[in-house]
Amino acid sequence: MMQRREQNVSNMIRACVTLIVMTAWLSPAWGQSLDAEVKVPYLWRVVIQASPHPALGSTVRQQMERDILAALQPALGPLGTVEVIDLASTPRDKWDPLWQQYEDKGFAALEAVRELTGIKTHFLRVDYVDGVYQLQSRQHDGFTGLVSPLRYQRVTAAEWLGRAAGLLLEQDFGLCGTIDISSEPTPETAKVIVRGGQLGSIDHWVKVGDVLAVAQVFKMDHPAPPPARTATGKLLTPAAPPPVSLTAQPRAYTYLRVREVGTDGRLVCAVLSAYRTPLPPGRGLGYRCMKLGTREGPLAIRLVSKEGSIRPGGQITVRASETGFQANPSPQDNFMFQDGLFRSQRPYAHLACVVITQGPGTGSQFPVPILGNDVVSLPFETDPKRVEAATVIQGLITLSNRVADARNAQVICFQAVTELIKKGKNEEALARAQAGHRNTQVATQTITDELERWREQIDKTPEAQRLVNNIQQHLTALKKADENLAKHIEALKAVVEQENDPKAAARDVQIKALITRINILLARGEVDEALNTYDQLLTLAPDNAEIRQRRDKLREEWQPKSPAHAQARQYLLKTWPGVATTADFRDSLPQLGTAIDECIKQGDHYTLRQLLQHFAVAVVKLNELHDRLDPNRDNERKEIEEIKQLGASLAAIEKKVQDFVSRFSDGAR
Predict the structure, then answer these.
(1) Smallest Cα–Cα separation from 79: which of 44, 30, 104?
(2) Are 95 and 109 in contact (CB under 8 A)?
(3) CA dist 38 to 41, 80, 568, Å?
(4) How far is CA 4 from CA 112, 136, 560, in A?
(5) ∠ CA(184), CA(187), CA(191), 5° rounding?
């Protein structure tokens, strides 16, 4: 549990960065401004996921919904609307894509780069274990793209659930703002225009000393998503949405600390950063920020190098202050080394300005928000030559995880679209496909841009090159699948247009929708489901000889060519997707290779198309296995290295499958 909490805190400040080579501060050439949305109310959605248990029946959940709404809506007041949604009571086809991704990947799904919708989505997980209710919460903010820390709470009685959940959620509401570009920020000070700041008082939500995380906002080259609305249909965002979609990336190791809270919905903040250029303009539109639920407490730090946890030898010292990095330290500011951790001698309020030194010199500086009692891991290399190399490797690992997550989200999107078409919900299928297409474009563009930035710093080590090749391979697969999705979107548009035409016959609309579904299924290799859809199609057009001929040809082509071929297909589509542990992956490699070779021998591109979807999920599984391990423990470090080797082996196998499948058409009929 401690390791999991440590990872969440580490994720808040994101990837390792180079802290020795820093550029001088330059006045930014601020370009196009961001809408600060000073009169746009917040839409704060609390999405409840309760585990199946008699102690969490509908009566308990409904009471919890009422209590949460009663706790949060009065506090939010004129600043916005609170909605509480029980996933168990909401039809799956009404789910937002983010909800689906959360169910599939848990709280980690919130960290993926996505379009900014303006909606705050706060997930609340409720479990009942050994007579105690366990609450977990985490929020994705759709205005900044930032994510709150993962919180925990234990409750002993059902009647206290709603009140406890309300307090847990409220601390991470996260008032948002936009850095004012009309008065250019300096390395020391920035002014923030609060979102919704002209709707009512913000005093309840922000005070002097509070800490805000920062994200840089970018524009995308496609239309913005539809304006945000409440469950009752009330429009919350401006009637004229921005012409293009926006996305954002957290600015690592950069925070704002509130100095003044104005009556006009503006804040004056100190800028605290590991960089001498905290807020570079780059190609972004500007910066947004979100208040963190910080507190007062002690701080425990683990220093981590490429080789693992760092011991205090070599004159390494750690100190921290609340007033700044250059403050004159007192003896109480120095950390003590105990049990492999550097521990503070006193508590810090909201944020600690940590300075790490080895011998004489200014050292490396890290602003660290105090989010709880969790251990914070900070990168530090005792050998300065390794700093930049370690930074690049860590950045590429983070990027590799992101592109794998994007592929997994794409798989989920295809599944959702085909299911909606199956249910006759063609308009919803189109909207889901368009959202998936936009999300993929966002992910592809941001990952590509970031990969190019890392290329400028990359060394020639095999590890770095392996990661770059892996990312590029995932990007190629992501783009190829997105091209197919774009074709399906055009087909769905035609279906929906015909569906809304009063002159069109319902039968013709249904036929066209089923043909679209077949094409999507065959592009993914899902032949069994495509054959079932052909059967439905023939009930509508029993005299259509061409459709019958296509179905029969596909059925014949899909028949196993030999017992070995049938066995290989069974393994690839039924057995191998169930691998779950490092040992499972290792032991599966020989049979995986043999089964793939058999399908290639038989020209079975459909099975291998379907296998590629499972590869996307398998990579995410490997990443999750990797993230659970502690590199500071010898036995777990060995498993980390094995997972890296397994990832390289799977990447080579997947490349072989992709090359074979690319020799065939996309399967559309």
Answers:
(1) 44
(2) no
(3) 8, 12, 60
(4) 18, 12, 45
(5) 45
Give strand ranges (E) for 467-626.
Answer: none
> With 70 as the cut, is the pLDDT of residue 238 above it?
no
- Phi first, then psi, for residue 81 (nearest 5°) are -120, 135
Q: Do domains 38-170 and 296-383 have the same CATH topology?
A: no
The half-sphere exposure of 535 on its side-chain side, counting CA atoms within 13 A, is 7
Which among 307, 301, 315, 466 is positioned nearest to 386, based on CA atoms? Answer: 307
CA distances from 230 to 119, 239, 331, 425, 571 (A): 10, 14, 54, 22, 46
Average pLDDT over the chain reads 84
Which range (101-110, 142-151, 306-315, 547-556) has the least confidence?
Answer: 306-315
DSSP letter (8 states) at residue 15: S
- DSSP readout, 30-71? --SPPP--TTPPEEEEEEEEE-S-GGG-HHHHHHHHHHHHHH
Q: Identity (one letter) of the amino acid at 249?
A: Q
Kindly calculate the radius of gyration of the chain based on its CA atoms and give it in whole angstroms: 26
CATH fold, domain 296-383, is Immunoglobulin-like (2.60.40)
Reduced to 3 states (helix: H, G, I; strand: E, B; else coil), residue 294 is coil
Topology (CATH) of 38-170: Rossmann fold (3.40.50)
Side chain identity at residue 435, one-letter code: A
pLDDT at 141: 97
Distance CA(85)–CA(35), nearest Å, equals 29
Where does 6-162 show beta strands of DSSP type E?
A: 42-50, 80-86, 119-129, 132-141, 151-155
Distance CA(475)–CA(465), nearest Å, equals 15
Q: What is the per-residue pLDDT across 398-428, written as a single tens digit (0 to 9) for each?
A: 888 888 888 888 888 888 888 888 888 888 8
**What's the pLDDT score for residue 613?**
86
- The token duo for 348 is 């810090």
Q: What would the two tokens of residue 234 be?
A: 């009330």
Asked if 661 contacts 612 with a C-beta cutoff of 8 angstroms, the reply is yes
Would you state the structure tokens that stand for residue 447, as one six-digit string? 């990952």
Q: Look at residue 3 and tell me whether its pLDDT is greater than 70.
A: no
Could you state, in order of their start, the residue ranges of all structural domains in the chain? 38-170, 296-383, 387-661
| Contact of 112 with 69, CB cutoff 8 Å | no
Instruction: Return the half-sphere exposure (C-beta side, CA atoms, 13 A cut-off) of residue 422.
Output: 16
Q: Does pLDDT of 306 surpass 70? A: no
| 62 touches 48 (CB < 8 A) | no
Closest CA to 548 of 531, 528, 523, 560: 531
Please write the tens of the pLDDT for every residue from 623-649.
878 777 766 566 677 888 898 889 889
In this structure, are residues 197 and 265 in contact, taking their beta carbons and an 8 Å threshold?
Answer: yes
Whose CA is closest to 494, among 515, 524, 518, 523? 515
Give the pair of three-digit tokens for residue 282: 């780059």
**Distance from C-alpha of 509 to C-alpha of 19, rounded to nearest angstrom:** 60
The pTM of the full predicted model, rounded to 2 decimals, is 0.63
What phi, psi does 558 have (nearest 5°)?
-80, -15
